[in-house]
Structures are given as structure tokens and as C-alpha cells.
Amino acid sequence: MRKVGIVGIGQVPVAEHWDRSLRDLSTDAVISALHDAGDPIPGALYAGNMLAGELTGQENVATLIADASGLLPIEAIKIEAACAAGGAAIRAAYLAVASGAHDCVVAVGVEKMTDHFNDAVSSALATAADADYEAAHGVSFVALNALLMRRYMHDHGITREDFAPFSVNAHRNAACNPHAMFMNEISVDDYMASPVIADPISILDSAAICDGAAALILCALDNGKAFPQPPVRLAASSCATDTLGLSERQDPLRWQAVADSAGAAYKQAGIGPTDIDAFELHDAFTIVSALTLEACGFAEPGEGVRMATNDAIRREGSVPIATMGGLKGRGHPIGASGVYQAVEAVHQLRGTAGEAQIRGARTVMTQSVGGSGSVAVTHIFQT
């Protein structure tokens, strides 16, 4: 397998882009990434997307993007893995370059969600759950995560207020990110006063519906080619799965796919959790942050929340997470989130993260999670 590096990045601000189409958003991100890489000619494009067919009536998304970006007739394939679609697109791109199938490829993630009422978006998101035994009974993703959060609180003696530092940290970091949707800091009091939408989950526990697109250019690093920016090596890429429905698991608070994916990535990169300088995790809900920290080896069961209350997750802490806002602060345009995470990891490793910069960052891990922990894609980036 060849060494693979990220040589170009591009993104559009996460927002409610009512006046812009999926085509517009993704094309801007791809062209920006190509320019950042010195305008190479890619051999393939992999597009992470979950909801275009359901919400915009557009499938064949990868070909749409390749056409609009002036990249025809290259290989172009849409990758869908629920909320992990962006991470899965990066993995497909990584494998294409590492295997020698292509020397240079584009990984892009895009989602257009805000042109519909919340009920329609919630129904579309529910297609990533078990259609027969969860979604058919009206159990939304918010409700599933509320069940997890309530069980976690019961098992570990945690209060709802203990989850507040996750959201406070995300918004604090998003305030330093010009591409973030929510560039406003919040307090614990703000968190406690936010409306509950599925007890105990409130609005400030949850990532918002939004639009966005981000892109990466991945190239082989063993061909002697020079690039305008110092390449960031993609040192590990892994994917693992678990049962689709929560009820089929022996312990719903043990996210096995997340643990297996992280473990495989650690092994591939030859490192462990203590070597990670920053972790862009899938904080779609605060409970997911806690379960992920535990599954990835940063905390024992029941201790993930205490990492937040002890300030370990802050930029100055031992395991900085959501360093540029994460899904909560930056926003969570489903199929694009995993690519936004990678773009932010590259900024950290280039030293171009501005006020959000983690000093001395040399190894950054990103992880995208689809469904209720049913699929997880992990990447490790290094200077």
C-alpha cells in the first residue's frame, strides 16, 4: 500500500443556504480544494451524501459534482453510510490512492437539508435506523439518543447538567471558526435553560439541521511530486459496523463499532490513545461524545462525561475535542461532516487553525458515526 497524503482542502461556511443548491455548494468546495492543491488533475471523485435523493430529488450526486466541477469523464461514485458518509468517502478515496488505482482523487461531502420543514428532515434521517423495528414505530434519532442518555445517567449517577461542558466547549471553539454556523459562546446556564426536545435531550445537546460542503484532495506521496502546501499524511483509515438497531445489542452503552474502528486505526498507525493530540469526534449529541471517548480508549465506562466536567476536552486539556466547533458548534450537514472534520484536522496540522490552534499538534484523529453507532469510520492524520 502506498503512502497517502492530503494536499488540498476546501470548504464552504456551514449555514442555512436557502439561495444555494447542492450543486453550488459542492462545486465551490471541490474547486477550492483543487486550487489549494495546485490544480492537479484527479482520476476519481467520491462524494459522501445521505439525503439528496430524499430531500432534493437528486441522486447520481457524484456525477453531478464531477460535471459541475469540470472534471468529466473521471470516475465518480456516491458513498452513503448514514451520518458517516463523509468519512466513508474519505476512506474510499484513501483506498483508491493507497492501492495504486489512482494517483490523485477528490473526496467531497455535501448535504442540503434546510429547504424542508423539520418533520420531513427527521423522517429522512430515520431511514438510517432500523426501518422495521425502530423507525416504523415512530422512534426518531433524537428519541434513541435520549434513551441512551437516560440509561447512562441512571447507570453512572450522572446529571443532565454534567453534560453541559460538551456543548460549552463546542460553542467556545466554534467562535474561533469563520466557517462555523454558531460562532457564539454559551454558558452552563444557557445549556440548562434550553428547551428539552426529548427528555433529557435539549436543543443545546443536539447538532442543528444545516447545509454545507467540504472537500479534500488525496495524492500518493511516493511519486516525488511537489505540492503548494506541505502534505498531511493520512496514516490510518478504518471502518467497522455493529447491529443496526439498539435493541439487538448486549449493552447499548458499549459502542462496539466505534471501539473496533478506533482500534484498527490505532494499530495501522502504530500508536495508541495517548498519542492523539486532538480528536474530532462525532458529537451529534452530547451523549455520543461521552460514549465515543469511552469506546476509543480515552476513558473508562462512565468516565466520559467526567472528562468534560474536568476540562480534559478543552483546547488546553489532555484530549481536545471539537477543536473548531465540532458537529454541535460548526454544524452537522450530514454527508459533509466527516469531510469537515478532516479539513479541520489538516488546519491543525498545518498550523493554520487560528485561535483554535492546538499547540504542537502532530497527530489528529477524526471519526464519523452512522446510525446509533451502527457504522464508524476512523482516520488518523499526521504531519
Strand count, sense and closure of the main sheet?
9 strands, mixed
Helix content: 25-40%
Q: For the largest sheet, list the strands in their spatial order.
A: 3-2-4-7-1-8-11-10-9
What is the CATH class of the largest domain? Alpha Beta
Given as residue ranges, the uncertain stretches (5+ residues, pLDDT < 50) are: none
Overall mean pLDDT stands at 96
Counted by DSSP, the helix tally is 13
Structural class: alpha/beta
Short description:
The protein is an alpha/beta fold and 383 residues long.
Which keywords apply here?
9-stranded mixed β-sheet; Peroxisomal Thiolase, Chain A, domain 1; 383 residues; 34% helix; 11 strands; 13 helices
